[in-house]
Design brief:
This protein has helices at residues 3-29, 44-59, 77-86, 96-99, 118-126, 128-139, 179-187, 200-205, 216-221, 247-251, 255-289, 301-305, 308-317, 322-330, and strands at residues 31-36, 64-69, 91-95, 142-148, 153-157, 172-175, 191-194, 211-214, 230-237, 241-246, 293-296. The chain has 332 residues and is of the alpha/beta class.
C-alpha cells in the first residue's frame, strides 16, 4: 500500500468514526416523551394531544417524539400532576378544578360564573388573566402550553326549567363534593346534594334529587336527559383543562425546541376546541331530538349577583388571590 493510499484509508476511517460518534450523539439526545391523559382514545382531548405529539416530532425531525397514554393508565390525576412536576411524566392534560390543590391560582376558574360564556373563556385564558394563571403553574413546576375546552356546566332538572335564580329555590340539585359548588346552589336558594356521579340517574328518576348539572356531552352520554327533561343553559361553571409540560422537561430543551413545543401547544388547543364544539353540537342535537326542553338564559346578571357570598367566602380564605379574581371578573 502506498503512502497516499494509507493516508486516504486513514482519513476515510476517521470520517467514518466521526460520523458514527455524531450519529450516536444525536440518538442519545433524542427524546421520547410520555404523556398522561384521563380520557379514552377517541375523545377531543385525546385527539388534541396526539396532534401535539405529531407536530413536535415532525418539526424536530424526530429529535423529540412521544406517546400519549390514554384512559388514565399512568395513574390518577393527582398522582399524574405530581409526577409531571417531578419530570417522571413529561406532559399531560389536567382539569384546573383538582389542580387547585397544588396551584392555588387555579381555584379562580372554579368560581361560579367567573366566565360569561365559552367564547369569553377562550379570550380570557388566551389573554393576560391566562398568562397570570400560567405563572402560578410554572412556579409549581408546570409549563402551560394551552387551555383546552372542557365544556360549560349547566343545570338539568326533572320538574321545570330554570330561567332566574328564584326558579332554583327549594330544588334538590346534585353537585360535586366541593364547597364552592355546594355554596353556589345554596346561594341560589336550592338544596345542594353531593353524591357520586354514578348514582345521579337513579336519584333523579326516583325523585331523591330534582336535577344535577354538567356539560352537554356528559348529560347526553349518561342518558340523564331521559329522566331530566329540562336543560337550562346557565353555563355557571366553565373550567378549562391545561395542556401542561413538566418544567424540568421543558427546561431541558433547546430554545428552538421550546418554541416548537409552544407553537404545537397552541395549534393543539385550537384543534381540541374545534373538536369539542363539534361534540357538544352533536350532543345538543341528540337531547333535543329526545324531547328535552332547552332554554338559553337571557340575562345571567341575577345569577352572578347571587354568587357574592360564594366569592366573599373564597376571598376570605384566599385573600392573596383578590387581584387575580378581579382580573378574571373584569376581563372582556
Amino acid at each position: 500500500m502506498t503512502l497516499m493510499n494509507s493516508l486516504k484509508t486513514g482519513a476515510l476511517r476517521g470520517t467514518t468514526v466521526a460520523a458514527s460518534l455524531l450519529l450516536a450523539t444525536v440518538v442519545a439526545e433524542a427524546r421520547d416523551l410520555r404523556g398522561w391523559n384521563i380520557h379514552v382514545e377517541d375523545y377531543p382531548v385525546s385527539h388534541g394531544m396526539e396532534s401535539f405529539v405529531k407536530e413536535v416530532s415532525e418539526k424536530t425531525d424526530g429529535a423529540i417524539s412521544g406517546k400519549v397514554f390514554h384512559s388514565g393508565v399512568l395513574g390518577s390525576q393527582p398522582d399524574a400532576i405530581e409526577q409531571t412536576r417531578l419530570g417522571v411524566i413529561d406532559f399531560g392534560v389536567f382539569s384546573l378544578g383538582p389542580m387547585g390543590q397544588v396551584v392555588p391560582e387555579a381555584n379562580v376558574v372554579s368560581l361560579p360564573f367567573i366566565f360569561k360564556d365559552v367564547d369569553q373563556m377562550y379570550k380570557v385564558m388566551d389573554g393576560e388573566p391566562g398568562k397570570a394563571l400560567s405563572k402560578g403553574l410554572e412556579a409549581k413546576g408546570l409549563v402551560a402550553l394551552g387551555y383546552y375546552d372542557a365544556g360549560a356546566r349547566s343545570f338539568y332538572t326533572s320538574v321545570k326549567a330554570i330561567n332566574e335564580p328564584a326558579d332554583v329555590e327549594g330544588m334538590k340539585i346534585r353537585v360535586m363534593n366541593n364547597d364552592l359548588f355546594v355554596g353556589m346552589v345554596d346561594s341560589l336558594g336550592g338544596n345542594a346534594t353531593p353524591m357520586a356521579f354514578a348514582e345521579v340517574y337513579q336519584a333523579i328518576k326516583t325523585g331523591v334529587v330534582d336535577g344535577a348539572e354538567n356539560n352537554p356531552p356528559s348529560y347526553e352520554s349518561t342518558n340523564h336527559f331521559e329522566v331530566a327533561g329540562y336543560y337550562s343553559l346557565t353555563q355557571h361553571l366553565i373550567i378549562p383543562e391545561c395542556l401542561c409540560m413538566s418544567k424540568k422537561t421543558f427546561d431541558s430543551l433547546t430554545p428552538e425546541q421550546q418554541e416548537i413545543v409552544r407553537v404545537a401547544g397552541r395549534n393543539s388547543t385550537e384543534l381540541q376546541r374545534k373538536l369539542w364544539q363539534e361534540r357538544e353540537s352533536a350532543s345538543m342535537a341528540k337531547v333535543s331530538e329526545g324531547g328535552v326542553t332547552v332554554n338559553e338564559i337571557a340575562d345571567k346578571a341575577p345569577f352572578q349577583a347571587a354568587m357574592s357570598p360564594v366569592y366573599d367566602q373564597f376571598l376570605a380564605q384566599s385573600p392573596d388571590l383578590t387581584d387575580l379574581v378581579e382580573m378574571f371578573k373584569n376581563a372582556q
